[in-house]
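Journal club side-thread
Mid-discussion, someone asked how the predicted structure for our own chain would compare to the paper's figures. Pasting it here so we can look after the session.
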Amino acid sequence: MADNKKISVAVIKRLPRYYRYLGDLLNVGIVRISSKELSEKMNITASQIRQDLNNFGGFGQRGYGYNVEFLYNEIKKILGIGKEYKMIVVGAGNIGQALVNYTDFESNGFKIVGIFDVNPRLIGMTIRGIEVYDADKMEAFIKNNEIDIAILTIPKTQAKATAKKLVECGIKGIWNFSPMDLELPKSIAVENVHLTDGLMTLIYKTNAVLDK
């Protein structure tokens, strides 16, 4: 583990990729792998992999490489995967429903236990057995169920006020799918997801390929 030194966001964002690729290697029975072999699979340089992992202790052995299962479990601990995290979804529209229906969350300990919306047509419906509640009940639900993470899939106009309310209710992590970056206290972890940004990046890459 890193000795309380600040780890760059770029390194943190690569950790889930390492975890995913190592899991795939475990599933096909790979016992050990070198940084060079891992770099070829992940399209990251071997030196970058070593630098990233050295932030947390290295884990490799000269002449051997990495024990896949050991490294997988160490990254799992670094990421905090292994215990259960209770989540709610705020916004039961198309994106919210798609996230609730994504069953892989649960295999990593992320459990959606509540869904909230302001739309009378959505309140009362169930998604994978989870009822959509009126947003007015959100505060009491969070406090009574010790919710860790809130997922926002609501319009831009509602995002700021809703995030403020979530923070006041004790939420420490927000996964934000609304089309705006949230400005919250540093004690609150926020991950902003802008779907159109990804699409525009893809279009740029597509045009760059076509221009070659």
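Post-session note: The CA atoms of residues 25 and 184 lie 38 Å apart.
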